[in-house]
Automatic annotation (TrEMBL), chains A, B, C:
Pfam families (alphabetical): UxaC (PF02614)
Biological pathway: Carbohydrate metabolism; pentose and glucuronate interconversion
Domain of life: Bacteria
UniProt xrefs under SUPFAM superfamilies: Metallo-dependent hydrolases (SSF51556)
UniProt-listed PANTHER family: URONATE ISOMERASE
Reactions that this protein is recorded to catalyse: aldehydo-D-galacturonate = keto-D-tagaturonate; D-glucuronate = D-fructuronate
InterPro entries: Metal_Hydrolase, Uronate_isomerase
Record EC number: 5.3.1.12
Gene of this entry: uxaC
Name the record gives this protein: Uronate isomerase
Length: 466, 466, 466
């Protein structure tokens, strides 16, 4: 299984040659990771990672959803039960189960990420199987015990120049403070993610809302609530944040008159809002956040379109983020009108749009981003953060939006060891795309080199204001 | 026109070489045909096939819809009128018309299937044209007169290990009984297709429903109706059925309380149900069928999304299945919630989903199948049972659902002679896809060999429990 | 930057060789341009084109929307303000701004069109940049001063056999008359575009409507209105028109009883129609236009799906067609039922459908065009008139609709100098597609040659009845 040196590059020799030349110049560029889900505590406390199963299987919904789809119980994979029920705790048993079902991952990006980590981090070139499961477990476990495998050391080894975490609006960011105070020079930035105090459909919303305004010392009114957001955003900015992130069921935005918005807030706060009002509140808040971005310069990320917790049994037993979030059709063109009318023509604002509905790229997102100064297209996300997904994105978006209305790559991961693998994949796929443009005469090679550099490094720094 | 030995394989020499090696090992595997529309009477009575036009043109809606789209009247192609109006009956005249318009099929799978049959079955390597229409007609007609061209002989020659027919719920399966009693060892299985007694919008529904419960000796009540389904499914299972098939306008499912379902049934039975109630009844019945599948082990196939009989003039004159069934957008993620809540987490249930809306593969179907243990993705269907359609399916579904959440190939045809052509096409396209994964380092060649075998043979047997 | 001789052809050498042979036979075929937006006055008066910026930047919404999306004010690009506000008038300053941002167009068709014009028309092989902006401006400006650069001379040089303009229903076509009377033998045809008197949501509709019936000497009634259309269509046909064009927000059609349609007209005329009635009126008029096409033989083009003037600030300041028209999901299968029930089975009628929602090609448009005798698929339009857009169109539409249910290429442009560039691109992409079919055994090369000729020349003449 040793990694193919030309993996993901074009098969045709001339195009492959061009792609090799492009990739050679971006392969070792520093990693800019402006959107992800690693734990700030890792960088603050620099602990060792636990056993191989806890690292590669238990927390990775790409891995355990595939096993679950083929009949493996989540309990057997050590996925914690929300109700405290018993689950497998023996890392080796979990690892063996993963190894036995390893062929399920053929053709998936999980396979490519995993094998890149195996080889690049652990020097393992054997394909995982029933036969070698124990041996590989031992090798990885042994390696994990070394100091060189701690987050700060890996961050340096991975050449991660800057990495953003994702943090709740009410988070005190103590780990971020600790990192700064430690004198370590790694650049770890928080991201303002206010969903828990913006989305009335989240469990525990009422309590979160009350705590949020109280934390900021603001009254429980619409104006107090907005002031609390402003205060918390400032708190995040003081700690290095350059962006906010918003995971909404839809891309709907609204721009109500202040009095109307205040009435809506009161109903939401009182738990009296119906389903339409709750959606309207989320919609209103996207526009409010966009206006605050205009004022304070935080880049705004919108991640819409997931129907969360589709499987009631899995949700009840295991809670959120267990592989049962399923995309649905997502409208942007009508949904974004109010927000765009408010800030869309302002080149000082940056709103980055993501999608789980690929049909929107050609039909709505590229035309929108190819017109509005405030809009940029985020990289392919979640199910589409994959070789084919990234290729389709470039093929469908570039002709209308070009490259500079896109923002480079997001690894979007909590799997620390896979960060280099994911950036490696994105750089290869982009170089392959550029090489094809050069090979069939659509782009000159010097331009392709410059563009490859932008896609791998420059655009992320620029778009996220890093 | 002699068939290109490397047809549908990658053009690039290295990838073509890999694909050749993969294809060489699956080309002659037995055919497993778990979903199709051949006539059970053919296997029971083993008749000769009639003339070339009656074999290749008159019954093939892929062929006559294309000719119709270019102004050829269906009457001139011998398509029977529902109202008994006169149509062309001279096979040679029909064949000549087909030959004259043969260039219309450039770039279509019909062309590839037809030419594969010509060469593989009749040894004809000349491209059909005005000039050779009569000569080819004579050669085919002569061949059809031989005993070797009868269904049982062809089934053996085609290496069809097992083939399923599609049969109405009230069918007595006499041909299937006759086949067993004949001592012939061909494996022909019925499939339970209850649409005529499930869909209140079908012409003749009331009568079909009354006959259905009467046949099972059950009362005309909701409980009697469900019992009749159970009885008929058992009858089918005794005759070898392993699957059911459901062709619905949408994928909507429902799970009403029993009393509510009973009231709905009464309104439907009385012809009093409005359009929403008729849709709800179909939705409820998908969930009921899924529960019965959990109990009796029949694999459930759902084929949603066709707007049937779009052309009122063609429907009035020629009836069903005349090329005027047009797909529309199809929602799965919300539609399937009730059914999945009922059986989706049960690895003992298999529900195979098909689509005519390709956008659903990446956005909804692959994420659903990559999570729910009970779900599998059927192969590309109807308009997408084609080289590009099958390629897009693999490219968009594999990264999220892998290979083992798919179920191999369905030829889905009533054109007996095209069965090997269709499986040949599917095997080539899958090998081409796998070869590209190997060539750009995403898969090892030994894995590709194993996977090619599964896609061509193993998965169909396993998924359909054959 | 000298144009790559094999640009847009397949990269793989064997397929490239086939594509070269195909392209060699269609490269210099005359241009048939049945749908576009050049000015009839150009052909009547044969003026010189103004300066480079006025030719390439100011009127081209592909160009200025991209610059605007990256923060360049439209005023600085010389785009006229609707409110008469000041904008840049120095062509050289505008050109320099374009040159400075030229890298934005990497990977876009605008880049390819522009460079083709530079080289083919002006002999310029240098890539535009900050450094050479002035020098290139001077070279182009100098060339534009020569008689050889006037419309009639360029039309001959470009081998444009026939070109259609797009003209309002009330236009007196004086330029078309002048062209005929001039004795010049260029073939310039008008196209009947009645949107201004069909779409109640257009600004100035009431006045346009009154003027329209008055022009035809008809009363302000439903019958008078229809008679006015018939009269104006006849007026256009006398001046060579072979087609009509309809740009509607949706593809919705209706077929009301005459009395109902008359009542609807009265409400629309009185300005009393609500949003649903205005949509219904447009829908009804598509069917009326289709019936008139059946009677007078004009080919009908339907261009639905654009959400016009999405950006209120840009619309208020700059008016229509400023790059802020964004597509949205477009239904065809239900929307077209009434029109198709009225004329869809008539092979004497030709209705050409366009889309901005690519998902409709495979799911709805190819199945519809592959069945209804009256339907044809227009070429990829607007955002999809691009190498990848045209490739996807062939890959997704051909397997169901074949080639002859398509109608060749439309350049659809007001950028006269880009006409050869656009046809060159379409011919190359089609030859590339055909070459791949030949290379992997789906088509014989002699058929590919015949088909390439049809796609480049024959189908447009035939479908548009030229």
């Amino acid at each position: 299984m040793a990694l193919h040196p030309d993996r993901l590059l074009p098969i045709e020799p001339e195009a492959r040659g061009i792609a090799r030349r492009l990739f050679a110049e971006v392969e070792t560029l520093p990693i800019v990771s402006p959107h992800g889900h690693t734990e700030p505590a890792w960088y603050a406390e620099n602990p060792r990672f636990p056993d191989p199963a806890a690292l590669f299987v238990v927390p990775d919904h790409y891995i355990f959803r595939m096993l679950y789809s083929q009949g493996v119980p989540l309990e057997a994979l050590g996925v914690p039960r929300a109700d405290g029920g018993a689950v497998e705790t023996d890392g080796r048993a979990i690892w063996r189960l993963f190894a036995r079902h390893y062929p399920l991952f053929r053709g998936t990006p999980s396979r490519l990420w995993f094998e890149h980590s195996m080889q690049a981090v652990f020097g393992i070139e054997d394909r995982l199987s029933d036969a070698n499961a124990d041996a590989l477990y031992d090798r990885i476990a042994e390696a994990l015990a070394s100091d060189a495998m701690r987050p700060r050391e890996l961050m340096e080894r991975f050449r991660i120049e800057v990495i953003a975490t994702t943090d709740a609006a009410s988070d005190d960011l103590r780990h971020h403070d600790a990192i700064r105070q430690s004198g370590w020079n790694g650049r770890i930035l928080p991201t303002y993610r206010p969903d828990a105090v913006v989305d009335p459909d989240r469990p525990g919303f009422a309590q979160a809302l009350a705590g949020f305004t109280a934390l900021a010392g603001e009254p429980d009114t619409w104006e107090g609530y907005l002031a609390a957001h402003r205060a918390r955003r400032a708190y995040f900015r003081e700690r290095g944040a350059t962006a906010t992130d918003h995971g909404h069921p839809s891309a709907r935005t609204a721009d109500l008159a202040p009095a109307e918005a205040a009435r809506l807030f009161d109903r939401v706060r009182a738990g009296a809002a119906d389903v339409g009002e709750r959606e309207l509140f989320r919609a209103q808040m996207l526009t409010e956040m966009a206006r605050m971005s205009r004022d304070d310069g935080l880049v705004m990320q919108i991640h819409p379109g997931s129907r969360r917790n589709h499987n009631p049994l899995v949700f009840e037993r295991f809670g959120f983020d267990k592989g049962a979030d399923i995309p649905g059709p997502t409208d942007y063109v009508e949904a974004l009108r109010p927000l765009l009318a408010a800030v869309g023509n302002d080149p000082g604002v940056t709103v980055i749009l993501f999608t789980l509905d690929e049909t929107a790229y050609g039909r709505e997102l590229a035309p929108l981003a190819g017109h509005y100064p405030a809009l940029r297209l985020g990289p392919p996300w979640w199910f589409f953060d994959s070789p084919e997904g990234m290729r389709r994105f470039r093929e469908v978006a570039t002709e209308t939006a070009g490259f500079r209305n896109t923002v480079g790559f997001n690894d979007d991961t909590r799997a620390f060891l896979s960060i280099p693998a994911r950036h490696d994949m994105a750089r290869r796929v982009d170089c392959a795309y550029l090489a094809r443009l050069v090979a069939d005469g659509r782009l000159d090679e010097d331009e392709a080199h410059e563009t490859a550099h932008e896609l791998a490094y420059g655009l992320a720094k620029q778009a996220y204001r890093l």
